[in-house]
Amino acid sequence: MTMLEYTKIILEKVSFDPRIFRKELKKAVNYVSKEEYGHLKSWVKQKFGAKRKQNSVSYKVLEVST
Predict the structure, then answer these.
(1) In this structure, what are the phi and psi dihedrals at residue 49, rounded to the nearest 5 degrees?
(2) How confident is the model at residue 1 (pLDDT cuts 50, 70, 90)?
(3) CA–CA distance, 64 with 22 (Å, rounded to integer)
(4) Cα dist. 34→24, 29, 57, 65 in Å?
(5) Range 48-54 contact pairs with CB under 8 angstroms and sequence separation of 24 or more
(6) CA dist., res. 12 & res. 37, Å (int)
(7) Inter-helix orientation angle 34-48/18-31, to 10°
(8) Quick check: 7 and 48 in contact, CB under 8 A?
(9) What is the model's pTM?
(10) Which of 29, 44, 54, 63 could, after both became Cys, cross-link 18 (CB 3.0–4.6 A)?
(11) Can you say whether the dihedral through the CA atoms of 15, 65, 34, 42 is positive or negative?
(12) DSSP state, 27?
């Protein structure tokens, strides 16, 4: 299992709590490779974009970490 796959599993499991989601997303950005980062970024936007109010903060985590 790649770090990206593992990260997706974790983020799906904690998506019920915006605070935990952001925390795990910050950690994930540090662990995935540069190639995986692009996939993670688009996956988060696609999977959680329409559902989450806190996504603007989550997207900032993704943008700042590049």
Answers:
(1) -60, -45
(2) confident
(3) 13
(4) 17, 9, 21, 11
(5) 48/11, 48/15, 48/21, 51/15, 52/15, 52/18, 52/21, 53/18, 54/18, 54/21, 54/22
(6) 17
(7) 160
(8) no
(9) 0.73
(10) 54
(11) positive
(12) H
Q: Which two tokens stand for residue 26?
A: 């910050």
CA 63 to chain centre: 11
Burial of residue 11, with CB atoms counted within 10 A of its CB: 0-12 exposed, 13-18 middle, 19 or more buried: buried
Residue pLDDT, tens place only, 17-57: 889 999 999 999 899 888 899 999 899 988 887 655 555 55
